[in-house]
Amino acid sequence: MFRLETEVDKERRALLNRRLRDENTARSPRISALRATPDAREVPLEVWALDTDGRVAAGLTGRTWAHWLHVDLLWVDTPHRGSGLGSRLLAEAERVARADRSCTRSRVETWDFQAPGFYRKRGYEVRGQVDDYPPGITEFTLTKELG
Prior knowledge:
Pfam families: Acetyltransf_1 (PF00583). It is a single chain. This protein is of the alpha+beta class. It has 4 helices and 6 strands. Strands 1-2-3-4-6-5 form a 6-stranded mixed beta sheet. A hairpin with an 8-residue loop joins strand 5 and strand 6. The protein is globular.
């Protein structure tokens, strides 16, 4: 007999994460070998553009892991859109990932109304899409070789 709960619980989430990580490490020789290297650590990567008053005009948040850069969020404030600021943030994140963290690839998810064209223009290729996520919208996964 089990009792199901839907509560947010940080301790249980951390426990679940550890258990799944340990099981994946035990079941996959490749993951096991990776865990024995410095590349096993997931490291946050953030790039910020501040205006002359120190306010955030744009930002990129992501993480690096296993020679990959994963872009989580990229946002540019409306008055600065079209100025190349988003391209600069992405290029800097890719530079840091490649030069400082030995990343060879990058990935990002974006919705059809957001920025798939922006990423394609910067060398990203669509690797997958999920239609109707959320309803009426398509989500794309794009990747890029960082060289």
